[in-house]
Amino acid sequence: MANNRTDLMQGTLELLILKTLSHESMHGYGIAQRIHQSVDDLLKIEDGSLYPALYRMEERGWIAAEWGVSENNRRAKFYKLTRAGRKHLDAERANWDRISRAVTKILQTA
User: Fold this and answer.
1) Nearest-angstrom CA–CA distance, 83 and 92
2) Labelling 49: which of 1, 8, 20, 59 has CA 20 to 30 A away?
3) How far apart are the C-alpha atoms of 48 and 45, rounded to whole Å?
């Protein structure tokens, strides 16, 4: 049976997280929901992928986290983009643009 969702290509999750956090700080569930809404639920982000990516990105200094209270009054860890994260986002976005142009050229050849 065909599935309307596309699993996330390896290496793109961090780019999507960084872009999402470039707008505002958010907790993990909010990040996943924002990404799903932005792409009309075409991508599937599993908790088992999201949270390890957030921890890796925090260790690398691309995001910072602090505890706060979510919109439903629950304690949650909120993530925000750091200066290093913004720089990494810019570099990865340029790389993604190059890769997508190359793949598009290949797919358009007869």
Assistant:
1) 14
2) 1
3) 8
